[in-house]
Amino acid sequence: MSPALLPPLLALTVSTLALGIFERLSLGPLDHPNHRSLHHRPTPRIGGLGMAMGVVIALGYVRLGDWHNVLVVAFALCALSLADDYLHVPAGLRFLAHATAAALFLYASPWAGWSWAALLAMGAGLVWFTNLYNFMDGTDGLAGGMAVVGFGAYAVAALWYGQPVLFLICVVLAASALGFLFFNFPPAQVFLGDAGSIPLGFLAGALGFAGWRDGVWPAWFPLLVFSPFVVDATVTLVRRMLHGEKPWQAHRSHYYQRLVRLGASHKRLALMEYALMLALALSALAVLRFAPALASALLVAWGLFYVWVLRVVDRRWHKAHGDEL
To answer: Please, which pLDDT band fits residue 177 given cuts at 50, 70 and 90?
Structure first.
């Protein structure tokens, strides 16, 4: 066996076995259905802990250099978010922790030559990435599939451009997410929980920014790869704020949630989203590797596609529910 295959195989195996045990013993906090939920039975929110165990065991013996700092911050967020899953930490304290994590990432990383304005914008973007993953973790299979495809795309790009440590981290994250997806694909037996969604969002943003800093990919690459989450979460947040709603309150007005409420099954929605995620990742990788000059055209094409999809969902929703969000 190639030594490069051992860490992702370990991550996949440990994540799968741990979650199988957690699910069998009904360990972890339960997510009870309420009027804003899309599920109908209490489900353990322990997926993030199983994924974290897979990542720790797979990378525990690997020298990661400066990348070690990124994972330390992510695991700190995992610990706080696990406490939130059990004890419901106040929103203000959670936001402070996310902002602190972003600041620690920027402080511990080499950003020589970057302006304060750029770093502040990057910190705000990282806080948004940290939260948008949590916002989008509301239906079976969605967040796990995004992690497999998104970090898988990061891994391929890192391998192409000679970044072995970044490749290893990303492929281990994708493999651990695949172990979780075995239990989260519709009908879900286990949910990710904040202990999974918050660190995954942070890592999607932090690794994306770090790869941009190191010249592995341009700024558009992580945004396009994770755009199924970025676009839905951002557009929904803006719409809710324009309607005078508090953005931190729980709701079910995301586009993916509205599709389920319009009649799409969790399984059908997951498969449609996987097709979109793969198309985005493959097109982004193809342009990144073989035709960088076409990046602007690719972004315009996908932007027009999103405008069309969101308008279609809006029309169908208004036809069925009027002006309700």
So the answer is: very high
Residue 212 burial (CB count, 10 A): 17
Burial 254-270 (b: 16+ CB within 10 A, else e): bbbbbbbeeebebeebb
Q: Indicate the number of domains in the chain.
A: 1
H runs (alpha helix) in 185-294: 194-213, 220-225, 227-242, 255-261, 266-290
Tell me the residue range of the domain where 50 lies.
3-321
pTM value surpassing 0.90: yes
Q: How does DSSP classify residue 141?
A: T
SS3 186: coil
Give pLDDT tens digits for 118-161.
899 999 999 999 998 888 887 899 999 999 999 999 999 999 99
Distance CA 274, CA 148 (A): 10
Handedness of CA 284, 239, 122, 138 (dihedral sign): negative
Give the Cα separation of 58 and 38 in Å (integer): 34
Q: How far apart are CA 39 and CA 265, in angstroms?
A: 11
C-alpha–C-alpha distance, residues 185 and 178, integer Å: 10
Written as one letter, the residue type at 211 is G
Closest to 255 measured CA to CA, from 286, 232, 229, 274? 232
Between 171 and 133, whose confidence is greater? 171
Q: Cα separation of 23 and 46, whole Å? A: 8
